[in-house]
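By way of example, what follows is a protein record of this kind.
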Amino acid sequence: MSPDEFRKRTKDIALRIIRLVGQLPKTTAAQVMGRQLMRCGTSVGANYRAACRARSHVDFIAKMGIVEEECDESIYWMELLIESGAVTPKRCPYW
């Protein structure tokens, strides 16, 4: 996958997360999980773009580590939203 394709995919996922969070139930738990998902899910693309501007290969690898961490955290919050019954797996971008 090219850097441009990856940039587009990470942006598309961020947009899907934004729409998902906007449709969550208005319960305190769902809203808290939604805010967490919004932060990490939208930062994946932003951090990838930063990695593309890395000053060296070592800098790129370090920044991609942050991308990986944010992806993993996003998956965690989506799992919690699903397992708590706030959303169905079909509505989450990851599934």
In short: The first helix runs from residue 3 to 22. DSSP finds three helices and no strands in the chain. The radius of gyration is 14 Å. The mean pLDDT is 95.
